[in-house]
Amino acid sequence: MIGQRESVSGAHFAFTDRWGGVSAAPYEELNLGGAVGDTPGAVAANRELAARSLGLDPARVVWMNQVHGAEVAVVDEPWGTRPVPEVDALVTARRGLALAVLTADCVPVLLADPVAGVAAAAHAGRPGMVEGVVPATVRAMVELGAAPERIVARTGPAVCGRCYEVPETMRAEVAVVEPTAHAETSWGTPAVDVSAGVHAQLDRLGVCDRAHSPVCTLESRDHFSYRRDRTTGRLAAYVWLD
Protein backbone atom coordinates (compact mmCIF):
# COMPACT_ATOMS: atom_id res chain seq x y z
CA MET A 1 0.00 0.00 0.00
CA ILE A 2 2.66 2.51 1.05
CA GLY A 3 5.59 1.82 -1.23
CA GLN A 4 7.88 4.43 0.30
CA ARG A 5 7.76 6.48 3.48
CA GLU A 6 10.28 8.82 5.10
CA SER A 7 10.35 11.30 7.96
CA VAL A 8 12.84 14.15 8.29
CA SER A 9 12.78 16.44 11.35
CA GLY A 10 9.01 16.23 11.68
CA ALA A 11 8.29 16.36 7.95
CA HIS A 12 6.65 13.24 6.55
CA PHE A 13 6.70 12.01 2.95
CA ALA A 14 4.83 8.97 1.61
CA PHE A 15 4.24 7.40 -1.81
CA THR A 16 1.73 4.64 -2.53
CA ASP A 17 1.98 1.64 -4.80
CA ARG A 18 -1.06 -0.01 -6.43
CA TRP A 19 -1.76 -2.74 -3.87
CA GLY A 20 -3.94 -3.08 -0.78
CA GLY A 21 -7.12 -1.40 -1.99
CA VAL A 22 -10.61 -2.43 -3.07
CA SER A 23 -10.84 -1.29 -6.71
CA ALA A 24 -11.60 -3.86 -9.40
CA ALA A 25 -9.78 -4.25 -12.73
CA PRO A 26 -8.51 -2.26 -14.54
CA TYR A 27 -7.99 -0.04 -11.48
CA GLU A 28 -6.82 -2.76 -9.12
CA GLU A 29 -6.25 -2.30 -6.33
CA LEU A 30 -5.40 0.98 -4.58
CA ASN A 31 -6.66 3.53 -7.10
CA LEU A 32 -6.76 6.94 -5.42
CA GLY A 33 -7.85 8.98 -8.44
CA GLY A 34 -11.45 10.10 -8.58
CA ALA A 35 -11.59 11.05 -12.27
CA VAL A 36 -10.40 7.91 -14.06
CA GLY A 37 -13.65 5.93 -14.30
CA ASP A 38 -13.46 3.96 -11.06
CA THR A 39 -16.51 3.79 -8.79
CA PRO A 40 -16.66 6.69 -6.29
CA GLY A 41 -17.22 4.28 -3.41
CA ALA A 42 -14.05 2.36 -4.17
CA VAL A 43 -12.00 5.55 -4.45
CA ALA A 44 -13.37 6.84 -1.14
CA ALA A 45 -12.59 3.52 0.55
CA ASN A 46 -9.08 3.49 -0.88
CA ARG A 47 -8.41 7.05 0.25
CA GLU A 48 -9.51 6.15 3.74
CA LEU A 49 -7.36 2.99 3.77
CA ALA A 50 -4.28 4.88 2.59
CA ALA A 51 -4.77 7.73 5.06
CA ARG A 52 -5.36 5.41 8.01
CA SER A 53 -2.26 3.39 7.15
CA LEU A 54 -0.26 6.63 7.50
CA GLY A 55 -1.92 7.60 10.76
CA LEU A 56 -3.81 10.42 9.03
CA ASP A 57 -7.41 11.51 9.35
CA PRO A 58 -8.85 11.10 5.81
CA ALA A 59 -10.86 14.29 6.34
CA ARG A 60 -7.60 16.21 6.90
CA VAL A 61 -6.08 15.27 3.53
CA VAL A 62 -6.34 18.01 0.89
CA TRP A 63 -6.62 17.03 -2.78
CA MET A 64 -6.65 19.11 -5.97
CA ASN A 65 -8.02 18.97 -9.51
CA GLN A 66 -4.80 18.70 -11.51
CA VAL A 67 -4.70 20.24 -14.99
CA HIS A 68 -1.01 20.07 -16.05
CA GLY A 69 -0.40 23.74 -15.34
CA ALA A 70 1.59 25.85 -12.90
CA GLU A 71 -1.09 27.33 -10.64
CA VAL A 72 -0.57 27.03 -6.88
CA ALA A 73 -3.18 27.16 -4.11
CA VAL A 74 -2.35 28.07 -0.51
CA VAL A 75 -4.56 26.12 1.91
CA ASP A 76 -5.06 26.06 5.66
CA GLU A 77 -7.99 23.66 5.91
CA PRO A 78 -9.76 20.97 3.85
CA TRP A 79 -12.03 22.20 1.06
CA GLY A 80 -15.21 20.98 2.76
CA THR A 81 -18.16 21.98 0.58
CA ARG A 82 -16.09 24.44 -1.47
CA PRO A 83 -15.17 23.51 -5.06
CA VAL A 84 -11.79 21.81 -5.36
CA PRO A 85 -9.66 24.21 -7.45
CA GLU A 86 -7.92 23.40 -10.73
CA VAL A 87 -4.30 23.72 -9.65
CA ASP A 88 -1.17 21.60 -9.80
CA ALA A 89 0.36 22.49 -6.44
CA LEU A 90 -0.78 22.98 -2.87
CA VAL A 91 1.09 24.85 -0.15
CA THR A 92 0.23 25.05 3.54
CA ALA A 93 1.60 26.54 6.74
CA ARG A 94 -0.82 24.46 8.83
CA ARG A 95 0.94 21.66 10.70
CA GLY A 96 -0.98 18.39 10.67
CA LEU A 97 -2.73 19.15 7.39
CA ALA A 98 -1.75 16.59 4.75
CA LEU A 99 -1.40 17.54 1.08
CA ALA A 100 -1.85 14.93 -1.66
CA VAL A 101 -0.90 14.72 -5.31
CA LEU A 102 -2.03 12.10 -7.85
CA THR A 103 0.17 10.61 -10.57
CA ALA A 104 0.46 7.71 -13.00
CA ASP A 105 3.77 8.60 -14.77
CA CYS A 106 4.14 12.30 -13.90
CA VAL A 107 6.51 13.33 -11.11
CA PRO A 108 5.00 13.82 -7.64
CA VAL A 109 7.01 16.52 -5.87
CA LEU A 110 6.84 16.79 -2.07
CA LEU A 111 8.49 19.70 -0.27
CA ALA A 112 8.77 20.76 3.35
CA ASP A 113 10.60 23.29 5.49
CA PRO A 114 10.25 21.79 8.99
CA VAL A 115 11.64 24.92 10.68
CA ALA A 116 9.14 27.31 9.08
CA GLY A 117 6.34 24.76 9.22
CA VAL A 118 5.58 25.02 5.49
CA ALA A 119 4.82 22.05 3.23
CA ALA A 120 3.89 21.64 -0.43
CA ALA A 121 2.85 19.02 -2.94
CA ALA A 122 3.17 19.53 -6.70
CA HIS A 123 2.20 17.61 -9.82
CA ALA A 124 4.98 17.91 -12.38
CA GLY A 125 4.24 16.32 -15.69
CA ARG A 126 6.08 17.40 -18.81
CA PRO A 127 3.78 20.42 -19.38
CA GLY A 128 3.89 21.50 -15.74
CA MET A 129 7.65 21.15 -15.54
CA VAL A 130 8.01 23.31 -18.65
CA GLU A 131 5.54 25.91 -17.34
CA GLY A 132 7.40 26.11 -14.03
CA VAL A 133 5.10 24.54 -11.46
CA VAL A 134 8.05 23.64 -9.22
CA PRO A 135 9.56 27.17 -9.10
CA ALA A 136 6.06 28.58 -8.54
CA THR A 137 5.57 26.19 -5.62
CA VAL A 138 8.87 27.11 -4.00
CA ARG A 139 8.08 30.81 -4.40
CA ALA A 140 4.75 30.29 -2.64
CA MET A 141 6.54 28.46 0.17
CA VAL A 142 9.04 31.32 0.56
CA GLU A 143 6.17 33.81 0.80
CA LEU A 144 4.96 31.82 3.82
CA GLY A 145 8.38 31.93 5.50
CA ALA A 146 10.21 28.93 4.05
CA ALA A 147 13.88 29.17 3.10
CA PRO A 148 15.11 27.18 0.05
CA GLU A 149 18.23 25.99 1.87
CA ARG A 150 16.02 24.41 4.56
CA ILE A 151 13.53 22.77 2.18
CA VAL A 152 13.54 18.98 2.03
CA ALA A 153 12.44 17.70 -1.40
CA ARG A 154 11.38 14.18 -2.33
CA THR A 155 10.10 13.04 -5.72
CA GLY A 156 8.29 9.76 -6.19
CA PRO A 157 7.79 7.02 -8.76
CA ALA A 158 7.48 8.36 -12.32
CA VAL A 159 8.20 7.31 -15.88
CA CYS A 160 11.96 7.49 -16.38
CA GLY A 161 13.89 9.17 -19.18
CA ARG A 162 14.79 5.79 -20.66
CA CYS A 163 11.07 5.06 -21.22
CA TYR A 164 9.39 8.43 -21.85
CA GLU A 165 9.54 8.49 -25.65
CA VAL A 166 8.46 11.71 -27.38
CA PRO A 167 8.78 13.20 -30.87
CA GLU A 168 12.08 14.92 -31.57
CA THR A 169 10.35 18.28 -31.92
CA MET A 170 8.84 17.93 -28.45
CA ARG A 171 12.16 16.96 -26.90
CA ALA A 172 13.76 20.02 -28.49
CA GLU A 173 11.00 22.30 -27.21
CA VAL A 174 11.37 20.96 -23.66
CA ALA A 175 15.17 21.22 -23.79
CA VAL A 176 14.95 24.93 -24.63
CA VAL A 177 13.29 25.47 -21.26
CA GLU A 178 15.05 22.73 -19.30
CA PRO A 179 18.17 21.26 -20.96
CA THR A 180 18.62 18.65 -18.24
CA ALA A 181 15.37 16.98 -19.33
CA HIS A 182 16.86 16.09 -22.75
CA ALA A 183 17.03 12.27 -22.83
CA GLU A 184 17.11 9.18 -25.00
CA THR A 185 15.15 5.97 -24.59
CA SER A 186 16.89 2.66 -23.96
CA TRP A 187 16.08 1.83 -27.60
CA GLY A 188 17.68 4.99 -28.94
CA THR A 189 14.78 7.36 -29.67
CA PRO A 190 14.09 10.90 -28.35
CA ALA A 191 12.87 11.10 -24.77
CA VAL A 192 12.22 13.50 -21.91
CA ASP A 193 13.40 12.98 -18.33
CA VAL A 194 10.92 15.00 -16.27
CA SER A 195 12.41 13.95 -12.94
CA ALA A 196 15.86 15.17 -14.00
CA GLY A 197 14.32 18.46 -15.08
CA VAL A 198 12.51 18.89 -11.76
CA HIS A 199 15.67 18.23 -9.76
CA ALA A 200 17.63 20.67 -11.91
CA GLN A 201 15.03 23.34 -11.20
CA LEU A 202 15.16 22.62 -7.47
CA ASP A 203 18.96 22.82 -7.53
CA ARG A 204 18.86 26.25 -9.17
CA LEU A 205 16.35 27.38 -6.57
CA GLY A 206 18.78 26.47 -3.80
CA VAL A 207 17.03 23.32 -2.61
CA CYS A 208 19.89 20.97 -1.77
CA ASP A 209 18.26 18.24 0.35
CA ARG A 210 16.75 16.25 -2.51
CA ALA A 211 16.10 12.59 -3.25
CA HIS A 212 14.17 10.80 -5.96
CA SER A 213 12.56 7.40 -6.26
CA PRO A 214 14.38 4.85 -8.44
CA VAL A 215 11.04 3.38 -9.55
CA CYS A 216 9.96 3.82 -13.17
CA THR A 217 6.18 3.54 -13.25
CA LEU A 218 6.13 2.23 -16.81
CA GLU A 219 8.54 -0.57 -15.93
CA SER A 220 7.02 -1.44 -12.54
CA ARG A 221 3.90 -3.61 -12.39
CA ASP A 222 3.55 -2.51 -8.75
CA HIS A 223 2.66 0.99 -9.92
CA PHE A 224 0.03 2.54 -12.18
CA SER A 225 1.25 3.82 -15.55
CA TYR A 226 -0.94 5.74 -17.96
CA ARG A 227 1.57 5.38 -20.79
CA ARG A 228 1.63 1.63 -20.34
CA ASP A 229 -2.05 0.87 -19.69
CA ARG A 230 -4.06 4.01 -20.62
CA THR A 231 -7.10 3.01 -18.55
CA THR A 232 -5.64 2.67 -15.08
CA GLY A 233 -5.62 4.01 -11.53
CA ARG A 234 -3.64 6.75 -9.87
CA LEU A 235 -0.95 6.68 -7.21
CA ALA A 236 -0.84 9.25 -4.44
CA ALA A 237 1.96 11.06 -2.66
CA TYR A 238 1.42 12.71 0.73
CA VAL A 239 3.31 15.34 2.72
CA TRP A 240 2.57 16.73 6.17
CA LEU A 241 4.32 18.28 9.16
CA ASP A 242 4.01 17.51 12.85
UniProtKB/TrEMBL annotation:
Belongs to the purine nucleoside phosphorylase YfiH/LACC1 family. It comes from Streptomyces malaysiense. It comes from the Bacteria. One of its GO terms (molecular function) is S-methyl-5-thioadenosine phosphorylase activity. InterPro entries: Cu_polyphenol_OxRdtase, Cu_polyphenol_OxRdtase_sf, Cytotoxic_necrot_fac-like_cat. It catalyses: adenosine + phosphate = alpha-D-ribose 1-phosphate + adenine; S-methyl-5'-thioadenosine + phosphate = 5-(methylsulfanyl)-alpha-D-ribose 1-phosphate + adenine; inosine + phosphate = alpha-D-ribose 1-phosphate + hypoxanthine; adenosine + H2O + H(+) = inosine + NH4(+). Keywords: Copper, Hydrolase, Metal-binding, Oxidoreductase, Transferase, Zinc. Homodimer. SUPFAM superfamilies: CNF1/YfiH-like putative cysteine hydrolases. This is Purine nucleoside phosphorylase. Its cofactor is Zn(2+); Cu(2+). It holds the Pfam family Cu-oxidase_4. Purine nucleoside enzyme that catalyzes the phosphorolysis of adenosine and inosine nucleosides, yielding D-ribose 1-phosphate and the respective free bases, adenine and hypoxanthine. Also catalyzes the phosphorolysis of S-methyl-5'-thioadenosine into adenine and S-methyl-5-thio-alpha-D-ribose 1-phosphate. Also has adenosine deaminase activity.
